[in-house]
Amino acid sequence: MSVLARQIAPSARLLTPVTTAPACLLPRHFSVLNRPQPNYPGHIPLTFIERGALAVGSAVGSLINPRRGDLIATLGEATATPYFIYRLRDAMLSDATGRRILRDRPRITSSTMPLPYLRSLPENSVGRTYAAWLDREGVSPDTRSQVQYIDNEECAYVMQRYRECHDFYHAVTGLPIFVEGELALKAFEFLNTLIPMTGLSLFAMVRLKPAERERFFSLHLPWAVRSGLASKELINVYWEEVLEKNVDELRRELNIEAPPDLREIRRMIRRQQKEEKQRMGQQTA
Amino acid sequence: MSASRSALRPYVCSSCRHGVLAPRRRFSSKPAQNPEIYDVVCVGGGPAGLGLLAALRASPVTSKLKVALVESQDLDKARSWDLPTHEFSNRVSSLTPSSVAFLRRIGALELLDTDRVQDYQQMQVWDGETGSKISFDWAEETSPFEDPRTVATMTENANLVRALLSRIEASGDENLKIFSKTTVSSIENGSDHPDGPDLSAWPVLTVAPSEASPASTSEPPVRIAARLLVGADGINSPVRSFADIATEGWDYNRHGVVATLALSDSEAPTFPAGMRTAFQRFLPALGGPIALLPLPNNHATLVWSTTPEHAAYLKSLPPNAFISMVNAAFRLSMTDLKYMMKMKRVGEEEEVNQHDAELTWRLQHTPQPNHIPPMVTGVQERSVASFPLRFRHASTYISPRVALIGDAAHVIHPLAGQGLNLGLGDVASLSNTIEYAVTHGMDVGDLLSLERYSTERWGANAKVGGVCDLLHKLYNVPGQGPVAWGRSLGLNVIDRLPFVKGFLMRQAEGGA
Ligand SMILES: Cc1cc2nc3c(=O)[nH]c(=O)nc-3n(C[C@H](O)[C@H](O)[C@H](O)COP(=O)(O)OP(=O)(O)OC[C@H]3O[C@@H](n4cnc5c(N)ncnc54)[C@H](O)[C@@H]3O)c2cc1C
């Protein structure tokens, strides 16, 4: 099972809004000795220095090991505040559907998204494609970690929503979760969401092999830039309501072009290499 | 002198005056056409014009001057203006303490209906984008045992106009002529009558009953000559055109939405008791500030400067949605407000108030500062209106035998509520100038006499108008860029430096 950017979620999935005491917009001043009350269940208030250390640490960690999904998620939270997550929330608040999502606060789990139902949907529907993608990657909707470090409870939900919808992004774009695909998607997401972590994780590019990097620059990055800039904000898609929609139609609506399927490409390349090797072996034999 | 005269009134053909006009006039069978001569003729019976007349009548030095006022509207209506105690006109202005002092000096203050006047002792101003704020009160300068000092006084323009009219009436009708429902149809230079005074350098007005009035057909036009012609005739001043005075200016492409509102009883008792506050929040993303200024009995007047599109939208809303928008504008983020300004209008009253639903929901997620106004609970019927915001400044306020005051001389952005105060400042200065000229035996229409007025007022008004213009521009830069940082830094710094704030407040108070 491939577990990039993913972790078994804690059992407390419900992110209830804290309506009585709205979170502060300004960074608060406190020390580790008098840490304030959490603003929502699971919230860990951080000092400015802790937040910085967390960002640097998780950035270095995820660069060394891009499969540490928890670190990538942490990096996302540590760098999303204060500005970027507000931008994403404001993008939602500027859109009728986005506002509805913020009001309803839907969560994507295996109980709200039953896989058997998704698999029963027509071929090429969003739900079926999503289920097929989950099956192909061997993952489930429950494998997203809980937001912990974002202070504003509404922004914490936005981050949570972004994280939970990530699998749908894979589904509609058709990108696999190998490093190249993940990178292409991150580039796409960065331009679509402007969450810095998605941009920062592009540094993982340094770990690509020369041929991979070549393909990334000539094929996937141009796709990511074109689609990321031209497409509507994906955070405003009410995925729960478009499950039965045709995926091509949705892609058209959102203005995303279909990217080349990396997995196919890899398989092709692997076949070529094998054939080459066999030919070489035959020659030497 | 003659050179400037011909430059100012180019359409008077001085060479043919003696050759053609004068001989013909000599044989005219209508000697009654000789204009009646006044020392001061004031065109315009708005707050500025009536203020000047009241000031001249109040001073023992100038009360003997022969004065006339021409106003195209019906002043009887203004005299008998009356509203129930719980209703207020939507044209309300804030008078600075120096304007109030001036009104007291000319004996007009005690004629105001005080039940309809509201002082406020504190002003909260903040930036809706960055949250930085500045609060104005005199707490730093008064001892805790004194009553808090008034920042400004809210008065309906109609209340003020009525008081000024009563003050003028109280001065008797000797040497006074008021042409009500009468419009100035032309102004030209007079001529040199052999059997009368040489009026060739004097403005002569032809006034006729206003179009709408029933007298317009019966009464013939009247001609009056002015030793000093005062233009208090508003933004499109005919007097200014006559004197050929250029104005610089532009339209802001913004409208001021006004309304009379009812407020909820505030739960928190004010300290000291009875203290009232004015509120202004800058909304860069919507084109200007929204201000809520207190009126008696928990009422308030609204001035919301915004784009013409937003103004049209607000005016089209049913009352409950309009109220929700006003409450939202003092509380929600720019993003929410921009969204709500585009929401489909619900025509029917009985349908759900979507604007209110949005407001209630967003309030749960929007942290509130502690200086917001009480909730608006009602809007007075037919009180929602809007007017275009403009900047105009005459290149000079005087020319031979002509002076401009009030909106005829300057129109500024209302964000500091200074429009009417500048006009009253003009009146105080011009009436002093006339008094000085009379005491010293000078001709009140002479440019040398008027010089003092222009010197006192032009620069001062330019400064206030310029600051308002600057603030308008500064607070129209949306987003969190350097301009927003700069202005929040500015506000926060000013808020923390009592000396600077005291200086600014004394400036706003009218240089007292
Ligand atoms: C719709 C509107 C709403 C406003 N709301 C506010 C507000 O809420 N707060 C605020 O501080 N300021 C407000 N202002 C600005 C404020 O009203 C002016 O600054 C103030 O009225 C200026 O007084 P004034 O006497 O100089 O001119 P005006 O009040 O404009 O008076 C000019 C007078 O001249 C008369 N006149 C013009 N031409 C002729 C002619 N040819 N013959 C005879 N008479 C003539 C007109 O009938 C008018 O009565 C508002 C302005 C407008 C137009």
UniProtKB/TrEMBL annotation, chain A:
Any one GO cellular component localisation term in the record: extrinsic component of mitochondrial inner membrane
Entry keyword annotation includes Oxidoreductase: no
Reaction catalysis annotation: a 4-hydroxy-3-methoxy-5-(all-trans-polyprenyl)benzoate + H(+) = a 2-methoxy-6-(all-trans-polyprenyl)phenol + CO2
Swiss-Prot/TrEMBL keywords: Lyase, Membrane, Metal-binding, Mitochondrion, Mitochondrion inner membrane, Ubiquinone biosynthesis, Zinc
InterPro entries to which the protein is assigned, alphabetical: Coq4, Coq4_euk
Required cofactor names: Zn(2+)
Compartments (UniProt record): Mitochondrion inner membrane
Pathway named in the protein's UniProt entry: Cofactor biosynthesis; ubiquinone biosynthesis
Predominant location category: mitochondrion
Pfam families to which the protein is assigned, alphabetical: Coq4
Similarity section: Belongs to the COQ4 family.
PANTHER family: UBIQUINONE BIOSYNTHESIS PROTEIN, UBIQUINONE BIOSYNTHESIS PROTEIN COQ4 HOMOLOG, MITOCHONDRIAL
The name this protein goes by in its record: 4-hydroxy-3-methoxy-5-polyprenylbenzoate decarboxylase
Organism field: Penicilliopsis zonata CBS 506.65
UniProtKB/TrEMBL annotation, chain B:
Location of the FAD-binding domain: 38-457
Enzyme class name: oxidoreductase
Pathway linked to the protein: Cofactor biosynthesis; ubiquinone biosynthesis
InterPro entries cross-referenced by the UniProt entry: FAD-bd (IPR002938), FAD/NAD-bd_sf (IPR036188), Ubi_Hdrlase_CS (IPR018168), UbiH/COQ6 (IPR010971), UbiH/COQ6_monooxygenase (IPR051205), UbQ_mOase_COQ6 (IPR000689)
HAMAP family given in the database record: COQ6_monooxygenase (MF_03193)
GO MF terms held by the record: 2-methoxy-6-polyprenolphenol 4-hydroxylase activity; 4-hydroxy-3-all-trans-polyprenylbenzoate oxygenase activity; FAD binding; oxidoreductase activity, acting on paired donors, with incorporation or reduction of molecular oxygen, reduced flavin or flavoprotein as one donor, and incorporation of one atom of oxygen
Membrane topology, record value: Peripheral membrane protein
Cellular compartment(s): Mitochondrion inner membrane
One Gene Ontology term, aspect cellular component: extrinsic component of mitochondrial inner membrane
Enzyme Commission number(s) from the entry: 1.14.15.45, 1.14.15.46
Taxonomic placement: Eukaryota, Fungi, Dikarya, Ascomycota, Pezizomycotina
Alphabetical keyword list: FAD, Flavoprotein, Membrane, Mitochondrion, Mitochondrion inner membrane, Monooxygenase, Oxidoreductase, Ubiquinone biosynthesis
Protein name: Ubiquinone biosynthesis monooxygenase COQ6, mitochondrial
Gene name for this UniProt entry: COQ6
Recorded family membership: Belongs to the UbiH/COQ6 family.
